[in-house]
Amino acid sequence: MEEDQRAQLMVAGRDEALIAAASTGDVQAFAVLYDRHLERVYRHVYYRVGNRADAEDLTQQVFLHAWQAIGRFQRTGAPFAAWLLTIAHNLLVSAYRRAKDVQPLDLDPATLARWANPEAEAFAQFDRRAVREAILHLKPDQQQVIILRFVENFEYGAIAAVLGKSEGNIRVIQHRALAELRRLLAHKVKV
Question: Which of 66, 94, 154, 184 could form a disulfide with 148 if both were Cys (CB 3.0 to 4.6 A apart)?
Fold first, then answer.
């Protein structure tokens, strides 16, 4: 009976209980955390690297690093997902340092199925690529704020906790980043 209650707690439980269990070596608790946060971490990494294979590899590295460091996780008021995205950011920085200027072809069948309206998909893909490229031209702290706020939907308080800044500072960084994005995208359209 105790085992059944524990399994129910893990499925319905909050991250804090799962983190506490995982930090004692409970693999099942970490597996639940993995399932809960996999999509968000993958989306964050994919948005930064732009191809499926690298995003999958880096996402797995994030969770491997998280498992190895779960005992050192500090509760700071930021969500557990923010800690995972910090690990992802650090791995992305390392990957960019090692990366060559190679653009792999991503032929994901699910992506190919969206091409029912090729013209609309081409314009949408152009827009997504232009926004992504513009974001990658921002300063690193501006990139993080924009991605955490608009891609990951984090609240200002969580972003402030992740970056170690005040909420007011985060709002200023966001304002400046959006102004710079407008400038970069307006320049891109004129080209």
Answer: 154
- Specify the CATH number of the domain 108-191: 1.10.10.10
85-117 residue pLDDT tens: 889 988 888 877 776 555 555 555 555 555 566
Burial of 107 (0-12, 13-18, 19+ CB in 10 A): exposed
pTM of the model: 0.60
Q: Where in the chain is the domain with CATH 1.10.1740.10?
A: 1-106
Q: Rounded CA gap, 1 and 186, in Å?
A: 63
Q: Which residue has the tokens 């409970």?
A: 26
Q: Which fold has domain 1-106?
A: Rna Polymerase Sigma Factor; Chain: A (1.10.1740)
